[in-house]
Amino acid sequence: MAVERTNRDIKSLIGQIADGEIMLPEIQRGYVWRASQVAKLVESLYLGYPAGTLLLWKTDEGAETRTAATGSGQGLPSVMPLYLLDGQQRLTSLYRVFNDHPAAQIVFNIETEAFQNQSNATLRSPKWVRVYDVVGPDADSFTLQMQLRSAGLFIDNAEIGRRLKALEAISQRDFHMEVLHGFGYEEVTQIFVRVNSGGRPFEDDGPCDGDALRPVAGVPRRT
Question: Where's the GmrSD restriction endonucleases N-terminal domain (predicted)?
Answer without folding.
Answer: 10-203
